[in-house]
Amino acid sequence: MSNVICSCTLGDYARVRLHLSRMLHREIEQLYNDVDEEGGNICEVELKCCRREFYVNPTDEKPEVGKAVIVEADGGHDYGIVYSTGVIAAKKMKLKGFDEKKDKLDTIIRFAEESDTEQFRLVRKREPEIRDVCLSKIKGHGLDMKLVDVELRLDQQKVTVFYTATHRVDFRALVRDLASEFKARIQMVQITTREEARRANSFGACGCVLCCSSWIQKIHANPFAEKQQASEYSHGDNHAHNVIGQCNRPKCCLGYSKNEKCSKNRSSDNYPPLGSRVTTADGTAIIESINPAKKEIILRYPADGKEVLISLKEFTSMFVKK
């Protein structure tokens, strides 16, 4: 993973993620078509290095998923792609703990033009040269760190250096040298081995592109949902090369695997599908979310937006025929 090619923004794998996002928007529009759209001016924008931030759209025009935009970025501006809008962006922001009223969000300056896209490509072409300079500077200072990737902002006023290290690194002298070399602000960001593997765009043991590089939106801290499941993976035919990924951590795809034991345990719970509609005494409701740990289901009434929490046992007695 020495030669890292970022998998985002204008890459082929970014198109895969955008396609999945468009599919999600179509599904959500069918579920929430009778609800006033909350957070209509909130947009989730994907920037370089697979970073996604929330921005306010000050215009009345709603951007489509995949639209290129110019956004505010720490005293400058940067290039990004709209990843989600409307209800989906608002719910993602809420899940991540952001409050539109309390937290001040940056704004989308304008929609990108062809000249902006061409400038972004030119900036990307400069990054290999910047990377070579950073490597020589790191060797010159004798720092025990591994350079993973570099990012040059669209306005070329800031350079972000991503690295991995097993211990704390004093890079103050390195930052001064890089700042005088590039005449720009330097930001050093330490990342994990999972993030390094995500940027590699390499192939896994299955013969496919790494899931974290192609379609997974959030890297799992621990893909094993249950300790029992983790112990079962470590025995039998599941050797280390089947469990450990290129990041030297458990593979993310294991979090989506279901062994027979787990399937039997979960099949008895009879969880209803998310988004399905049920008719109650108070009217039609949508199954908003399910908490398998507590065996609780949240029903949302589209008429007034009210949410009701009921137990799985109560739901089964109300809607499942015996």
Largest sheet: 5 strands, mixed, barrel
Low-confidence stretches: 1-7, 225-238, 261-268
Going across the biggest sheet, name each strand in turn.
1-2-5-3-4
> What is the number of beta strands?
12
Q: What kind of assembly state do the chains in view correspond to?
A: single chain
Structural class comes to alpha+beta
How much helicity do the residues have? 25-40%
What characteristic shape results from the CA principal axes? Answer: globular
Radius of gyration in whole Å, from Cα? 23 Å
Number of DSSP helices? 10
How are helices and strands ordered from N to C? Answer: HEEEEHEHEEHEHHHHHEEEEH
Give the overall average pLDDT. Answer: 78
> Strand share of the residues?
15-25%
Measured distance between first and last alpha carbons? 56 Å
InterPro entries: PSP1-like (IPR047767), PSP1_C (IPR007557)
Protein name: PSP1 C-terminal domain-containing protein
GO cellular component, one term: cytoplasm
Pfam family, one: PSP1
